[in-house]
Amino acid sequence: RIKKVLTRQDAYSWEGLYQQNPTPREGSIFKVDRLGYLDSLPSNLPPGVRAWDIASSEGRGDWTVGVLLTRDLEGRILILDIVRGQYATDERRRIIAETAKKDGPLVRIVGPEDPGAAGKDAALDFVRLLAGYPVKTKRQSGSKTLRADGLSAQVNQSNIWLRRADWNQEFAEELRTFPMGKHDDQVDACAEAFNELVGVSDPWNW
Questions:
Q1: What whole-number distance in Å separates Cα of residue 109 and Cα of residue 132?
Q2: DSSP per residue over 90-103, as a string?
Q3: By CB neighbour count within 10 A (0-12 exposed, 13-18 middle, 19+ buried), where does 87 fall?
Q4: CA 176 → CA 29, 31, 94, 101, 146, distances in Å?
Q5: What whole-number distance in Å separates Cα of residue 95 and Cα of residue 66?
Q6: Which stretches of the chain are DSSP H helices?
């Protein structure tokens, strides 16, 4: 009950007083007070990138997260949507497929490829699930902090904008506590989407 009350009012107090994990209010790596928020989206946005960070635990542990990013004509990075849940395998596959259908056929999709035979099988299943969409998997390299470096630079220069939605608060809090927070699935997926997005010179022509 204490956590429920405090996290609603001040997540910083919960982390510092009860989790022994004090972090600056503005964030350590990500200065979350520099995030922008949009009540309405610009017109003529190019197709973006949806990156997935996949977990296999239902109702516990890590989260499966899909983050959708694009870039507007002014060069701002816009976070349009976050899908997040602790899904069983069948439900996770259904959510991923339904999200791709909702995003449309022009949004590029990136999934993880873990090392080893099991990781390759999971990556192949991900690609097969999304047949008909521009999809690929990528093997992660380097530390989580290093992979998020480009994203944090843009956040800290006030160039990351969020579509105002009910997922904003939990996402901003995960950024603020990264890399010391309990979860980092949203940061991982967002960093992957960002790295894919900025690696393409013309987002209208994948």
A1: 11
A2: HHHHHHHHHHHHHH
A3: buried
A4: 7, 7, 31, 31, 16
A5: 10
A6: 2-9, 11-13, 89-103, 117-129, 144-147, 149-156, 168-177, 185-198
> What does the pLDDT read at residue 61?
74
In eight-state DSSP terms, residue 24 is -
> Given this model, what pLDDT does residue 14 score?
45
Residue among 149, 159, 131 nearest 69 (CA): 159
Between CA 197 and CA 70 the distance in angstroms is 7
Q: How far apart are CA 63 and CA 164, in angstroms?
A: 21
* Cβ(191)–Cβ(140) below 8 Å: no
pLDDT at 56: 75
Q: CA distances (Å), 28 to each of 11, 31, 57, 83, 173, in order? A: 15, 7, 29, 25, 11
Global pTM reads 0.84
3-class DSSP string for 26-50:
CCCCCCHHHCEEECCCCCCCCCCEE
What percent of the chain has pLDDT above 90?
A: 71
Answer yes or no: are the C-beta atoms of 113 and 102 closer than 8 Å: no
Q: How confident is the model at residue 145 (pLDDT cuts 50, 70, 90)?
A: very high
